[in-house]
Amino acid sequence: MTSKRKIGLALGSGSSRGWSHIGVIKSLKDIGIEPDIICGTSIGALVGASYVAGNLDNLEKWVSALSKLDTARFFEINTSLTGFINTERFHDFLNENVADDDVLIEKLDKQYAAVSTDLETGREIWLDEGALVNAVWASISLPGLFPAIKNNNRWLVDGGLVNPVPVSVCRAMGADIVIAVNLNGDIVGKHFSERAGKPIQENSSNGLTNLIREYTNSLFSTFREADQSPSLFDAIANSVNIAQDRITRSRLAGDPPDILLSPKLSHIGLLEFYRAQEAIREGEHCVQRMKSEIDYIMGII
Questions:
Q1: 33-55 pLDDT, tens per residue?
Q2: Residue positions annotated with a catalytic role
Q3: Looking at CB atoms within 10 Å, which of 135, 151, 152, 171 has the fewest?
Q4: Neighbouring residues of 241: CB distance < 8 A, sequence distance ≥ 6
């Protein structure tokens, strides 16, 4: 008797575009595919953790009701400039929609790992044991938004810096078939040309006020003229897009998945978390578009 083939699901990074992972997981389940191994980077780690903890329906309900104002409440400007996330509010969100603090990865019914980056050495760190919430937090700590997270005497930041779509982690954990979700396939050169923040008022002398204004403009999808310089946050967001696109292409070329899903998400900005319903629908549609290929690959491997 042959043993059951293990299916790995690699959920990629991509900030607010990551809500599409919810749609992908739901649609895969509809066609009879439930992964045994879930590996995630950044927002992929968050959605994957919610799934393995049995809270995906709660997460979908919460993010689908998220408004622009709700999104803005998660951000704050602090004088230490270690990050712009309201960490207390974000912790509450994780406990309500991902897992409680005492949920351990090694006690889960499915294998799980989150990818993070050692800020000092640049090494890729796989978090596959310990508190599930801590692993998510370390994986999603995008520099400039979240403060670095201390874990085992290492300062960890977003795993998208080293492995945006963790196919390699799924394989190392024993996956026979890897389904990967790449959120970065169509973002470079599209979204930035369509929108960016309003310019800062020249008569403002308060640097913190300028920073708040730039963040608010980037979050609420304002437009700019073709010859206006991009705002600070637009420049950061698109730099992240470019870096993750290039790293993703390189990593996938060296270790391709058996099935690659690439939702079309260039219209959703890096911080537009309130557009969850659009992202989830596209995740569902992506699986539906690829169903024939999925059926073929699952049948021959």
A1: 999 999 999 999 999 999 999 99
A2: 42, 158
A3: 152
A4: 184, 187, 188, 191, 192, 270
pTM, entire model: 0.85
Which residue, chain included where needed, has tokens 């989830």?
280
Quickly list DSSP for the chain. Answer: -PPPPPEEEEEPP-GGGGGHHHHHHHHHHHTT---SEEEEETHHHHHHHHHHTT-HHHHHHHHHT--HHHHHTTB---TT-S-SB-HHHHHHHHHHHT--TT-BGGGSSSEEEEEEEETTT--EEEE-SSBHHHHHHHHT--BTTB--EEETTEEEEEGGGT-SS-HHHHHHTT-SEEEEE-S-TT-TTTHHHH--PPPPPTT---HHHHHHHHHHHHHTT----TTSPPPHHHHHHHHHHHHHHHHHHHHHHHS--SEEE----TTS-TT-GGGHHHHHHHHHHHHHHTHHHHHHHHHH-
CA angle 171, 176, 177 (to 5 degrees): 90
pLDDT at 14 over 80: yes
List Cα–Cα distances, 2 to 5, 6, 172, in angstroms. Answer: 9, 12, 21
For 189, the token pair is 């050169």
Q: Please give the average per-residue pLDDT across 169-184, as a whole number.
A: 96
The pair of three-digit structure tokens given for residue 254, joined into one six-digit string: 């060296």
Can you read off the two tokens belonging to residue 264? 């079309």
At 182-230, the pLDDT tens digits run 998 776 655 444 444 444 344 444 444 444 444 445 554 545 555 677 7
Q: Measuring CA to CA, which residue among 148, 142, 146 is closest to residue 164?
A: 142
Strands 149-151 and 154-158 turn out to be antiparallel
